[in-house]
Amino acid sequence: MSRPMRRFLAFAIVLFAALIAAAGLLVPTIVRPIVADQVRAALPFEGQPVDVQVELDPVGLLLGSIDSIHVTGSSLETADATIGALDLTFGGVSTTTHAFTSVSGTLRNVTLPFAQNTELVLDTITVDGSSSDMRAVADLDIRASLSLIGNAFADAGIPVDDVELANGGVSTTIFGQAVQIAIGVDSGSLVLLDVAGGGPMSIVTAAPDDPWRITGVTVTPSGMTIQAAIGAAGLLQGP
Predict the structure, then answer these.
(1) Domain segments of the chain as ranges
(2) Residue 78: how many CB atoms within 10 A of its CB?
């Protein structure tokens, strides 16, 4: 091989090495804002200020994965809810299916429209897991808990008086009779386990095609904590 060719190959190797090193710096710099813009566009907040921080590396990107996406915002409104504060981190996000290997974070002061033009406020919703096994824990104060339970009795046409939270359920008066009713889970729904001998009465019902199921509940005199499993993978498939 001639000396000029060897010099050219040596120069090419040095050049390629420099380009690869530059790609390691430039690709994340270029791609991060693109990914961040795509995430903002996909969120249901219609131009409201949301901060999106993206961490990625060129090799992972070529393999179709983004290291992490961190989304934060406050006083966010959608057609179905108002979120006081949002802080979620998604890890190992697929660029093709949008599935993720991990998620963690919290939504605070989530306000939902409720019965008779009222509002239901969830103090916190904490999420973790992955897109194939996502878990959520919602904390409700006494007012929100009693609103859910009172609405369930009203929907069932059962008049009740003096509904109070108790450990594991509620105490109330039905047709003049003081009763205690346990709250639990039945077929993925939150229920009053046995109302006046008539079996379970639904508080929050999971329809067969809903991608979530309630898995547990803790009731104390000051509120409820509800655990749920969410099948997020099907919702996040790319087109």
Answers:
(1) 1-96, 103-239
(2) 12
